[in-house]
Amino acid sequence: MDQISATPGVAGQPGGPEFGRMIEALRTVQAAITGAAPPPEVSAEVGAILETVAGALEPYLVGEDEQLSGHRDDLPGRGQPLLPPLWLDERDETHLRGRVTFDRFHLGGNGAAHGGAITVLFDEMLGRLANAGRNRARTKYLQVEYHRITPLDTELRVEAKIARVEGRKRFLTCALYDGEHLTADAEGLFVELLPGQP
Ligand SMILES: CCCCCCCCCCCCCCCC(=O)SCCNC(=O)CCNC(=O)[C@H](O)C(C)(C)COP(=O)(O)OP(=O)(O)OC[C@H]1O[C@@H](n2cnc3c(N)ncnc32)[C@H](O)[C@@H]1OP(=O)(O)O
């Protein structure tokens, strides 16, 4: 990944507000499909529409560095649909604070967010902080603890901090709160890449 753009796009240009709207619509579709039990004719109709959608985008397939998804810091979750919609409110080279809302797409069971979706959020938070103003680093390990269920459709607070740096090793922590309640937290090690490491 090369550049992350925090500049809102220009209407009528690739990456303009139209792109953000498309990603938002995709998120809505993901949640709607996950939560629906449609009759077969509706499943068939929606499936055909989605095939048409994929076909409309196919001529515009680009390489990783040119894609817009994941490179748009002005959009929740960088415009990357794998990530839950995450808004960063505070950031410097030692800490990050943001808000995130899991929806039906992220359901694990019994109204709780999927543990893997929470781990994706933590990897994102720690990865962004580990790489903030520093040479590139990748996750070596990420240890997650789930303290209580993480609710859906609720705005949650997420905070990440650098705990310590030892040579190439960056140890970080992250915590997710529902109001005052800690729902999950994580400790991770990110290792600075050596020349030639992808
Ligand atoms: C590249 C990204 C660009 C991003 C730029 C823009 C940012 C925009 C936002 C993006 C936000 C998304 C961020 C997602 C972040 C991912 O999800 S990255 C994907 C998941 N991670 C991977 O795929 C990593 C795969 N693994 C690897 O590539 C290699 O194992 C690594 C991590 C580069 C390390 O390899 P290595 O150089 O062989 O390191 P190694 O010698 O084993 O260990 C280094 C040190 O750590 C220690 N260590 C190793 N394991 C452990 C352990 N378990 N416990 C304690 N110490 C340990 C070693 O003892 C050693 O210590 P020292 O001898 O230096 O004191």
From TrEMBL:
InterPro entries: HotDog_dom_sf, THEM4/THEM5_acyl-CoA_thioest, Thioestr_dom. Its EC number is 3.1.2.2. The keyword Transit peptide applies. It catalyses: octanoyl-CoA + H2O = octanoate + CoA + H(+); decanoyl-CoA + H2O = decanoate + CoA + H(+); (5Z,8Z,11Z,14Z)-eicosatetraenoyl-CoA + H2O = (5Z,8Z,11Z,14Z)-eicosatetraenoate + CoA + H(+); hexadecanoyl-CoA + H2O = hexadecanoate + CoA + H(+). It is an enzyme of class 3 (hydrolase). It is found in: Cell projection, Ruffle membrane; Cytoplasm; Membrane. Its main location: membrane. GO terms for molecular function: hydrolase activity. One of its GO terms (cellular component) is membrane. GO terms for biological process: fatty acid metabolic process. Keywords: Apoptosis, Cell membrane, Cell projection, Cytoplasm, Fatty acid metabolism, Hydrolase, Lipid metabolism, Membrane, Transit peptide. Residues 110-181 form the Thioesterase domain. It is a peripheral membrane protein. Pfam families: 4HBT (PF03061). Belongs to the THEM4/THEM5 thioesterase family. This is Acyl-coenzyme A thioesterase THEM4.
